[in-house]
Amino acid sequence: MRIHIIEDDLAVSDALATVLSVLGHAPLCYPDAESFLAEPAPDSEDLVIVDLGLPGIGGEEVVRRLELSEEPPRVIVISGHSKSKLERKLPQFASMTVLRKPLSFPALAEHLN
């Protein structure tokens, strides 16, 4: 499993990458959706951690594009908004894992497998 982190806040991205490295993963980090989408699509076994508040192409659009894949990867959405607010605004997030910032790394670790 490859883990892709799409996060424009370098401090958040770096912290995620550090924690995931300690847990035995080698995450790939992208500062924006455009650089992520320019790479080969993730496999169905992969995990994509995406911030909804990205500049340019937003996290919502990344999630929509991933959902259109033949075999979409697993997605964890990260956001400063509450899950209930996201569910009201974007019903498709109701079935996804949504982690609020600031992130709880034990909560993240729970969702890796």
Automatic annotation (TrEMBL):
For the keyword Phosphoprotein, the answer is yes
Name the Pfam families for this protein. Answer: Response_reg
- Residues that the record marks as modified (4-aspartylphosphate) are 51
Ordered alphabetically, the record's keywords are: Phosphoprotein
Q: Where are the transmembrane segments?
A: none
Signal sequence bounds:
none
| Residues annotated as domain Response regulatory | 2-113
Keyword Phosphoprotein appears in the UniProt entry: yes
Can you say what this protein is called? Response regulator
